[in-house]
Amino acid sequence: MPLDKPYKDVPGTTIFDAEQSRKGYHLNQFCMSLMKPANRERFKANERAYLDEWSMTEEQKQAVLARDLNRCIEHGGNIYFLAKIGATDGKSFQQMAGSMTGMTEAEYRDMMINGGRSAEGNRHLGEDGDAQLHRQPQGAAGRKTLRE
Amino acid sequence: MARITASVYTPHVPAIGAALDLGKDQEPYWQKVFSGYERSKQWIKENMPDVIFLAYNDHANAFSLELIPTFAIGTAAEYAPADEGWGPRPVPKVIGHPEFASHIAQSVIQEDFDLTIVNKMDVDHGLTVPLSLMFGNPPKSDFRWPCRVIPFAVNVVQYPVPSGRRCFALGQAIRRAVESYDEPLRVQVWGTGGMSHQLQGARAGLINEPWDNRFLDRLIADPADLSLMPHIEYVREAGSEGIELVMWLIARGAMADVAGGAKPKVVHRFYHVPASNTAVGHLILENAR
């Protein structure tokens, strides 16, 4: 019997379960290595060469190089591991979280100051909240990426 | 005998630690967060515990994917603040209580909770930010935390994470363990993490103020019923990282009323949005003396 995964119908959300963890094992362990200052320096000096030391998939490596956290998560990354890349880049959790919404840093910060994202319409797939697939990207940063 | 005097509930948002460490705590944005802890700092000065049993989650710092303990109790003499990638927080090392922690481990494991025993680990923002919120960052002239801490790490990162019901039952076992320890220690149990927040994907930034406040109401009035809430409700209503709130049920389960004693006194309740990505809900419950 397959495991029950009721969380599959929450929009814009990937639950880090055993399946994701298996997929992302080497990606996440690469992230852990960035907790050591010497490894952060080596990664910054030549990102591609450092990534090639890990048995990650090419998609995972490209997602890291592009700092595309949504793609990293799709390929098994978990935000607490991926945060090590952000920390190496000098980014805060707010900047990292915001980068996944298509909003600019200012747009995301303003949303949070104004009470955050509402759960309305964002509880189940197929509703009409701002986190639903048909309403992406949400902000000016995402629209700019689409134009490029 | 040792005794649980109170429980404290607070988020452990890393940006709160950074705001303190970088001296930004007087900025209006952060003042709104810290103002909710003024009363708490005064209260804890007047009600200083000997030991804090601190339930938190490690955020891929002490534990990678190599080893994922569901419940891990620290029995070490001391713990260093972790380098999470930004460099370690400039806060004192955490002093443990090996004898008392080992007693709790023995008692709780013999009640069928299969804890992992940890003799060496670094502690991340999940543990140190609550200390900073409740005590302020210790000054250079007296660079130490004012009491001992037993770190209790709960896996809420990789599913399956423990249920609210299991956390609540564990809290009750911890109370029995504390009360069977011979030394007359004053013990507080802290539950940290939450409240509503999501750090990933198109739904990042989710906050659910009505749900959070109902959670606080139910945590005070009927925690046994609250503990039956399934994971999916936390995820749907409070965001994927809102699942951290199951740890609050450990602290709540350790209070006297759950074992037939008097209802706790609500010393302090505070709610504010936002701290970075997160809703700050904070509660202090005191057992009758």
Account of the protein in words:
The complex is a heterodimer of chains A (148) and B (289). Chain A is 53% helix and 0% strand. Chain A is mainly α and 148 residues long. With 289 residues, chain B is an alpha/beta fold. The longest helix of chain B is centred in the middle third of the chain and has 16 residues.
Number of strands of chain B: 10
CATH fold assignment of the largest domain in chain A? Protocatechuate 4,5-dioxygenase, Chain A
Q: How many helices of chain B in DSSP terms?
A: 10
Helix-strand sequence of chain B: EHHHEEEEHEHEHEHHHHEE
Summarize the largest interface: chains and residue counts: A-B, 60 and 46 residues
Radius of gyration of chain B: 17 Å
Residues in helix, % of chain A = 40-55%
Helical/strand content category of chain A: mainly alpha
Number of helices of chain A: 9
- CATH class placement of chain B: Alpha Beta
The first-level CATH class of the largest domain in chain A is given as Mainly Alpha
Category by helix and strand content of chain B:
alpha/beta
Quick tags:
heterodimer; A: 148 residues; mainly alpha; 9 helices; B: 289 residues; alpha/beta; Protocatechuate 4,5-dioxygenase, Chain B; two-stranded antiparallel sheet; 10 helices; 20% strand
